[in-house]
């Protein structure tokens, strides 16, 4: 198939999932065309049957805000027309699903048999999409898509609850490459970070407020105060970094915390981790938690959104009430002080991650593409 994939290029989950899916499809000999405003972070190696198309966005003095949605629709129509796109799969409803609808209208009969598939990821529904400034257009664009998928049962239910959706939503969960996200021997790295064999706690995110990075620091402080020697590695960057740094200074624990910034090879950091913290205030899936579990790292998370579908309480880690950093700290201390329990939970975490294997999920998308094509 000739498949068009439209996504945000950022480190955020939706861009990562879209790019990894593109790579997985290309490996199965599909021709994949990725459309975005910049090269996606995970599109790191050259693959013969993946083409990357950058959206041309010219600015003119009259435009205070260049109309990206229109430039995108224009380029989607060209892709369908000149590259013979047979399926157009857009990740994140705003504005991708809307531009896709417009592209299809522009081409009329010529694109009538090209299904538009929209994958909902999260804030396009729970935050941005529910904003009254966008809600009607999101409602409309989802209903006009030929296929709609959501990354968790939670997101599916939330979408029906918040919008007036008449379409069936298929849940196709996120996935990981288990060959990449596995525990590998990084002993030299571990020794450099924790020379006195301190426990290593890791958090990975884009440091948006919703990730509650200062909570991560508070949980870590609880761990230190309960006689567990530990180091905290914070991977990523974003708006809340200053608040997290300030929390470290206030607690006097800067010497035990390393801000590593954005990292491409997250699996290397996860390979030396003893515990992963994700205390988010909103998370439709929690891809970062799944990546940690792939590397056999137990997860302590909040019990909100799609996280309980991924992180199983008492089995792969622990779920705690939102903001309850003391409870998270208690579970962390218990786990880090009990090697047998830790070993068992690590093993079960990896086992759980195996349910989200890249190949299986790519097959599910292929089947879904076919079923949408047949319905047109
Ligand atoms: O979480 C973010 O800040 C990025 C965001 C996105 O839209 O790229 O991630 C969302 O999609 C991911 C991939 O499906 C999910 O794993 C994340 O849970 C979800 N984030 C939120 O719901 C806040």
Would you kindly provide a brief summary of this structure?
This protein has 376 residues and is of the alpha/beta class. The protein has helices at 13-27, 68-83, 96-107, 123-126, 135-144, 153-162, 187-193, 213-225, 241-251, 266-270, 287-294, 307-310, 325-336, 339-353, 358-375; strands at residues 2-6, 31-36, 50-54, 87-91, 116-120, 147-150, 169-171, 199-204, 230-235, 257-261, 275-278, 299-302, 317-320. A seven-stranded parallel beta sheet has the order 3-2-1-4-5-6-7, sandwiched between helices.
Q: So what's the CATH class of the largest domain?
A: Alpha Beta
H and E order: EHEEHEHEHHEHEHEHEHEHEHEHEHHH
* Mean pLDDT metric: 96
Ligands, deduplicated:
ligand GMT
For the biggest β-sheet, the strand order reads 3-2-1-4-5-6-7
Compute the separation of the termini in Å.
16 Å
Largest sheet: 7 strands, parallel
Q: Count the beta strands.
A: 13
Number of domains: 2
Number of helices: 15
CATH architectural type of the largest domain: 3-Layer(aba) Sandwich
Helicity, as a percent range: 40-55%
- Low-confidence segments, ≥5 residues, pLDDT <50? none
* CATH level 4 superfamily of the largest domain: Glycogen Phosphorylase B
Question: What's the CATH topology name of the largest domain?
Answer: Rossmann fold
What Rg is obtained from the alpha carbons, in whole angstroms?
Answer: 21 Å
Domain Glycosyl transferase family: 187-351
Domain Glycosyltransferase subfamily 4-like N-terminal: 11-180
Protein name: N-acetyl-alpha-D-glucosaminyl L-malate synthase BshA
């Amino acid at each position: 198939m000739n498949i068009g994939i439209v996504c945000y290029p950022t480190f955020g989950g939706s861009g990562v999932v879209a790019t990894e899916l593109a790579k997985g499809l290309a490996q199965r000999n599909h021709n994949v065309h990725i459309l975005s405003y910049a090269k996606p972070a995970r599109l790191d190696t050259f693959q013969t049957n993946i083409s990357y198309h950058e959206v041309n966005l010219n600015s003119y003095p009259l435009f205070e805000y260049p109309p990206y949605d229109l430039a995108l629709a224009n380029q989607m129509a060209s892709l369908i027309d000149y590259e013979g796109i047979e399926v157009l799969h857009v990740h994140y409803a705003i504005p991708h699903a809307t531009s896709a609808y417009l592209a299809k209208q522009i081409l009329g009969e010529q694109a009538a048999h090209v299904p538009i598939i929209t994958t909902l990821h999260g804030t396009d529904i729970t935050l941005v999409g529910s904003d009254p400034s966008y809600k009607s257009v999101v409602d409309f664009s989802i209903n006009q898509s030929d296929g709609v998928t959501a990354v968790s049962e939670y997101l599916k239910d939330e979408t029906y609850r918040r919008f007036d959706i008449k379409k069936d939503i298929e849940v196709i969960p996120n996935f990981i490459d288990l060959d990449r996200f596995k525990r590998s021997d990084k002993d030299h790295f571990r020794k450099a970070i924790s020379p006195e064999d301190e426990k290593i706690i890791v958090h990975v995110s884009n440091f948006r407020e919703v990730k509650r990075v200062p909570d991560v620091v508070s949980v870590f402080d609880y761990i230190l105060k309960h006689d567990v020697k530990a180091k905290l590695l914070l991977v990523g960057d974003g708006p809340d970094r200053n608040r997290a740094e300030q929390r470290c200074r206030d607690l006097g624990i800067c010497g035990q915390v390393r801000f590593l910034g954005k990292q491409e090879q997250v699996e290397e950091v996860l390979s030396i981790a003893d515990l992963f913290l994700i205390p988010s205030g909103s998370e439709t899936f929690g891809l970062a938690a799944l990546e940690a579990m792939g590397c056999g790292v137990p997860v302590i998370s909040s019990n909100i959104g799609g996280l309980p579908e991924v992180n199983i309480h008492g089995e792969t880690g622990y779920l705690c009430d939102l903001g309850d950093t003391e409870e998270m700290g208690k579970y962390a201390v218990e786990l880090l002080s009990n090697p047998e329990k830790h070993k068992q939970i690590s093993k079960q975490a990896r086992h759980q991650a195996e349910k989200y294997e890249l190949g299986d999920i790519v097959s599910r998308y292929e089947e879904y593409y076919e079923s949408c094509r047949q319905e047109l």
